[in-house]
Amino acid sequence: xxxxxxxxxxxxxxxxxxxxxxxxxxxxxxxxxxxxxxxxxxxxxxxxxxxxxxxxxxxxxxxxxxxxxxxxxxxxxxxxxxxxxxxxxxxxxxxxxxxxxxxxxxxxxxxxxxxxxxxxxxxxxxxxxxxxxxxxxxxxxxxxxxxxxxxxxxxxxxxxxxxxxxxxxxxxxxxxxxxxxxxxxxxxxxxxxxxxxxxxxxxxxxxxxxxxxxxxxxxxxxxxxxxxxxxxxxxxxxxxxxxxxxxxxxxxxxxxxxxxxxxxxxxxxxxxxxxxxxxxxxxxxxxxxxxxxxxxxxxxxxxxxxxxxxxxxxxxxxxxxxxxxxxxxxxxxxxxxxxxxxxxxxxxxxxxxxxxxxxxxxxxxxxxxxxxxxxxxxxxxxxxxxxxxxxxxxxxxxxxxxxxxxxxxxxxxxxxxxxxxxxxxxxxxxxxxxxxxxxxxxxxxxxxxxxxxx
Length: 454
Ligand SMILES: [Ca+2]
Ligand SMILES: [Ca+2]
Hints:
Layout: H1 3-10, E1 23-27, E2 30-31, E3 36-42, E4 49-55, E5 60-67, E6 74-79, H2 84-87, E7 90-98, E8 104-111, E9 200-205, E10 216-220, E11 224-228, E12 244-254, E13 257-266, E14 268-273, E15 276-281, E16 288-296, E17 299-309, E18 314-322, E19 329-334, E20 345-349, E21 352-357, E22 370-379, E23 383-392, E24 394-399, E25 402-407, E26 413-422, E27 426-435, E28 440-450
Parallel strand pairs: 2-8
Antiparallel strand pairs: 1-3, 3-6, 4-5, 4-7, 7-8, 9-10, 9-12, 11-18, 12-17, 13-16, 13-18, 14-15, 14-17, 19-20, 19-22, 21-28, 22-27, 23-26, 23-28, 24-25, 24-27
The chain binds calcium ion (CA) (2 copies).
One calcium ion binds near residues 358, 367, 438 and 440.
């Protein structure tokens, strides 16, 4: 092929890049190494591929790639590298460049030390030096609860949506977008949430697979939505009532303790704590309640909830609460491996998740030749549950005086699971455990394997 023809064929149609102002925004703009970072791009050449690098003056590390959609946007995410090279507290750059290298943008990311430093408040998740032309409604700090302005020009279903490709002059004092129903009424009030952090950052997709660039991003004060046969909307767009999905992220400062997280959902949802799945209900289904208990260290934890709706109605709610002391385990410790005689220690244990190694649970308990009985009540939503027991040395589990797992044997017991159906009521749980010699460890927990009807 002659060069001249090749050049004509291979040279892409010039894009009026003078009109484009490529931007990236990241959430969060700071955090500890290992944090989940979302990246949104606007003003990029449609169809381009974008590479994102973590960089300082000397080196660059590819962390993510993305494809620009027809409106010039992209969305991607990455987990900030947990290593010595990039994880030391300090300032780093996130750079974005197109495959053609005709467009570039950059923003900063500050690595903070976990626990020892006050984390940057996430109430201002999207902080950029310049206003974003295409995401006008929501990239603004959450107002304080006492002066939360409510938009007076709440869009109605008859309102003409603002074209998203037309830069709109924005004020930096735009109010928090309050979710509205289709007829424009306020979906629910936004009471001030307890604690220092308010609000979720929600990316909303017009498909059920969190696929591609989100249709819009907004802040949500609480995750408690009942869209019914309607669907989420922003000032600029409304999702279809079927087939949409949302990813919410938020960092919450927890006091140390044992917590119960509860999701009410139709259709599917997945809850992550520090990017680890703790609830996986990612499937179509009727309205159901799923709970999980987790012990959390004190300090900031990254919560992420992925949600999709396949068919109406659409409902999602997430809440959490510290486990009441009455829901903790009552531990009764014996100075022999046979649960015999007078207990030497009685105490409350929030969870059965111990690895004492060659040590002992308590100064009053010997490191070898001891045993424990734990008892508590637990209320379950109906469904099939996967129970997991592991022990060094032996252990067994009783539910309402029925022996459901029996590992009462004098050797290391690797994690053993059984699945049983539990009705929606309160059960008496009892775990017995004994240690002979050497290392000592025990774990018992459960998770929903499938909800009712599955
Ligand atoms: Ca021991
Ligand atoms: Ca042992």
